[in-house]
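Hi L.,

As promised, ATP synthase subunit b:
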Amino acid sequence: MLGNTFILLSANGGGFLSSLNNPDGLNLGDIIVTIVFFAILMVLLKKFAWGPLMGIMDQRAELIANEIEAAENSRLESHKLLEEQRALLKEARENAQSIVENARKQGETQREELITAARSEVNRMKESATLEIATEKEKAVAAVREEFVSLSILAASKVLGKEISEEDNRALIEETIVKAGEGR
């Protein structure tokens, strides 16, 4: 419709716009019509195209801003999770070190207990052996005394030529042995 108006205005050969045309080639009327049509086109574009286009651009800008915010939140959350993982790893290392230290201490304690038990067993065995040796020594001394008494009685009876009672002889010999033992 506007295009038809432009054609009609320029086809009118003698009107106001024709009078503005310069014979040297500058068509001032065409320039004015073009500017008017350009202004009308701009108004129509602003009303029908620019508003929706700006709405789409605003939506796009808002979407991009939301995506940037979501990416920043994701980055912060991943950084937080990384720090939590590092803390958990550090705690696990400390726990493992604590377990190893406790096991080492427990091993040392058990080793000391085993050494103490072995020493006490050795001491008990030494005491038992000492007691057994003392008992066997006393038995051996008693056996030697018996043998000595028997030999002494036999020797005394041969020397004296007469027999004395075995009990008197035994008492005499034991008395002699005790006196000899005290002399040592």
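The radius of gyration is 67 Å.

Thanks again for sending the construct details.

K.
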